[in-house]
Amino acid sequence: MAGTGINKIANVVIPVTDQDGMIEFYVDKLGFTKRVDEPFGGKYRWVEVGLGDETTTIALAPPPDGSPTGGNQTGITLQTGDIDATHAQLRDGGVDVDAEIMRMGDPVPPMFWFRDPEGNTLLMVQ
Hints:
It is a single chain. By secondary structure, this protein is of the alpha/beta class. It has two helices and eight strands, in the order βαββββαβββ. A hairpin with a 3-residue loop joins strand 2 (33-40) and strand 3 (44-50). The model has no long low-confidence stretch (mean pLDDT 95).
C-alpha cells in the first residue's frame, strides 16, 4: 500500500532473559555498541545495540509476561567482508558457531549460523 509513511526498519527485537549477559555478548564478542539502556514500565529495561553508523538496531528486550525466551531463529543476518576470519575469530572467542562455513557457489554467498548465549540463531554472510 503506497503512502503509509513507513520509512525505515527501526530495530529488530530478540526477547531475552539475561539482558546484561546479552549486552556483553553483542558488545564484547560481536563488536556492537550499546546505544540505548533505559528503564521503562517500572520493572523493565529497553536495550538496543548497533553497528557503526547503521541506524537499524537489535533490541535485547524482556519478553511479554509468560512468554519464553531463547532458542529462537531470529531471522537476523549479519554481513562480514571476510567470512573465514570472522568464523575463526568467533569460534576462538567461544561463540557457538557452525563447524563449517557453507559454500554453495554463486550467487549464494558463503555463510554460517551462530548462536547467542540464550540459543538464539543468527546468520553471518560474506
